[in-house]
Amino acid sequence: MKWLLFPARIVARTRPNLFSLYRRSVSQYLRPRTIQNLQSMAQTPELKTKLFKPLVWIDCEMTGLDHVNDRIIEICCIITDGHLAPVKAADGQGDSHYESVIHYGPEVMNKMNEWCIEHHGNSGLTAKVLASEKTLAQVQDELLEYIQRYIPDKNVGVLAGNSVHMDRLFMVCEFPKVIDHLFYRIVDVSSIMEVARRHNPALQARNPKKEAAHTAYSDIKESIAQLQWYMDNYLKPPQETESVESIGSEQPESPSSSTSSLKRQRTDF
């Protein structure tokens, strides 16, 4: 039994030369692994803070509205928490966002309809598309990496925007990795606008007008501001709804709650 518990002492007592060899071999065995462990610990990224009910605001500029034949040529993404506060840039200077232009040649751009030719030409987007060196695959990977930087878990971030169902329709075909990472529901500000037009048209008439710059970044900023306006002026704040009784016994569902895998993996409409 002592041989099993104290092999080093026994070796040292019987044969000093063997003990020296034993100690040297053990040191050589452990040291590389200790260094490797320390290196792996140093390379382990810090835990990312999870945003409160994050919204992934995306706006696309396309060559038209036919999701089969037309293409996304510009895409922008801003991530906010549930209170519409944008995530900050890595350097702490201003808000963070992703924006990119996808390259297509004249054979694609010349097929645009008159509206796209006029507006994309006036905004300078057509020239940017022709000059861009980024492929669709590259932009998709960059956008997915950007979203995962702030929302690492699947089925948590909710796609948001104005008429964002149309952006999603194109993205299912061209950005399937991004759609697969997001939750299947969307927040479409246009839906609130249409409800307000019918429910409170007088208030809707005072909704701030858009500048209609028709660039992906400016459109997202306007969409966020528009939803904030609805939250401030149209939707009731929590303190005004405390006395409202719930209908049924169902609890509010969050994207991170347990939802059936079938629903979570949906990409249909």
From TrEMBL:
InterPro entries: Oligoribonuclease (IPR022894), Ribonucl_H (IPR013520), RNaseH-like_sf (IPR012337), RNaseH_sf (IPR036397)
SMART domains for the chain: EXOIII
UniProt xrefs under SUPFAM superfamilies: Ribonuclease H-like
Region (Disordered): 240-269
Superkingdom in the source lineage: Eukaryota
Feature: compositional bias, Low complexity: 245-261
Keyword annotations of the record: Exonuclease, Hydrolase, Nuclease
Gene Ontology terms for molecular function: 3'-5'-RNA exonuclease activity; nucleic acid binding
Protein name: K7_Rex2p
Organism: Saccharomyces cerevisiae (strain Kyokai no. 7 / NBRC 101557) (Baker's yeast)
Biological classification of the source: Eukaryota, Fungi, Dikarya, Ascomycota, Saccharomycotina
